[in-house]
């Protein structure tokens, strides 16, 4: 998952983008970048690292202009290298394009193989690059038509912000897997993955970019086109469960309220006799609050979060994840000793967090440790922009709930049911992608699709 942000018509576009990316940092921690246009010339800067480490005042001052596009990356196709940092910039036929993509294409390999056979030279190992090549190929027909043609060819998840020297364009796949919204600030426009970035820069939320829509923003305002027909949406439900920030509104709903409903659903399905409820912070907090309020059980912060560690699940290597989980969450002996506790977390993916942290809680002298997960078991890989890679890495793909309980050394392990998840989503599961829980993929995926498919 990545975070994307765009600005049109604000004299401090680079600064606004810096703040926007800062607010979207939870969506990608590997690299950050932006491209800025003053109406004629496009300048760019990208590097590995977090937003405040990549940019400083001096770098931002070298990016003048009123149009900008920015990106924070969490890789899903292609390794973590500066070359693979976005926005991806090219100059073709005298026109510079900078593209920021959130999502993952499922047919990038096929498209790339075909384009290479026709002589295209690729610079990165990202799926996102094929979009730029397709745009360049069709550019004679004008940018909107070129995007439309590209949208006919690419399959999978894409929320995209594209910068041209005099325009900003946003487009979104017909299923709308990833969020993308439009806001207004001081007469200018902003486009963002999540509304939390609009709040930070005091922009007013206008609406979401519609699935299948192409939205052009230029001197004359907004121009909306139908890119491809959107027959059915497949909003990523995992955005609500884990990915997005709780203060954001995505797919028309607030994330915090959604997560609380997940916790309330767990309380209905799995009321437990324990002394208190505690979350694995951060994203376990909101379902834990919902569970505690619905059951009437006390709520405690039994583990404390170190604020100098980011998200652990989205780190690209196992070694980094293991280390970070230890540094990140530390139990409070005083609170836990002699107690029966219900630990709530939003998800159990590889088991990295729970395996070591349950042990650490046990060592404090806690009497019983039960775990409540506010989504069903994740049994199938995601190919649409979340790095749940091979089924082998997914703990629930090969093991029963009882086997996982034993592996994690828990007294009890309970997942929210699929029905419970759908109920929390208002009862209409059809609007959502649920593939990692059900194996029913809204966009077909060919066998053997892997993160490093473009590396060879
Ligand atoms: O089973 P695992 O493979 O450990 O993955 C799941 C865990 O990772 C995530 O937390 P993360 O630390 O990434 O982010 P958070 O601070 O938002 O909870 C998620 O909230 C779970 O706690
Ligand atoms: N998670 C994402 O949205 C990543 C975008 C793109 N697939 C990349 O790997 O860079
Ligand atoms: S498979 Fe899961 S994580 Fe991937 S898009 Fe669908 S709901 Fe989201
Ligand atoms: Mg977590």
Automatic annotation (TrEMBL):
GO molecular function: 4 iron, 4 sulfur cluster binding; amidophosphoribosyltransferase activity; magnesium ion binding
Xref: InterPro entries: GATase_2_dom, Ntn_hydrolases_N, PRTase-like, PRTase_dom, PurF, PurF_N
Signal peptide: none
Pathway: Purine metabolism; IMP biosynthesis via de novo pathway; N(1)-(5-phospho-D-ribosyl)glycinamide from 5-phospho-alpha-D-ribose 1-diphosphate: step 1/2
Catalytic machinery residues: 2
Keyword hit for Nucleotide-binding: no
Gene Ontology process terms (BP): 'de novo' IMP biosynthetic process; purine nucleobase biosynthetic process
Domain Glutamine amidotransferase type-2: 2-220
Keywords tagged on the record: 4Fe-4S, Glutamine amidotransferase, Glycosyltransferase, Iron, Iron-sulfur, Magnesium, Metal-binding, Purine biosynthesis, Transferase
Pfam families in alphabetical order: GATase_6
Reactions catalysed: 5-phospho-beta-D-ribosylamine + L-glutamate + diphosphate = 5-phospho-alpha-D-ribose 1-diphosphate + L-glutamine + H2O
Positions bound to Mg(2+): 283, 345-346
Cofactor(s) needed: Mg(2+); [4Fe-4S] cluster
Cofactor note as given: Binds 1 Mg(2+) ion per subunit. Binds 1 [4Fe-4S] cluster per subunit.
The UniProt record lists the keyword Metal-binding: yes
Enzyme nomenclature, EC number: 2.4.2.14
Amino acids binding [4Fe-4S] cluster: 236, 382, 433, 436
Role summary: Catalyzes the formation of phosphoribosylamine from phosphoribosylpyrophosphate (PRPP) and glutamine.
Family per similarity comment: In the C-terminal section; belongs to the purine/pyrimidine phosphoribosyltransferase family.
PANTHER family in the cross-refs: AMIDOPHOSPHORIBOSYLTRANSFERASE
Cited NCBIfam families: purF (TIGR01134)
Protein name as catalogued: Amidophosphoribosyltransferase
Annotated source species: Thermosulfurimonas marina
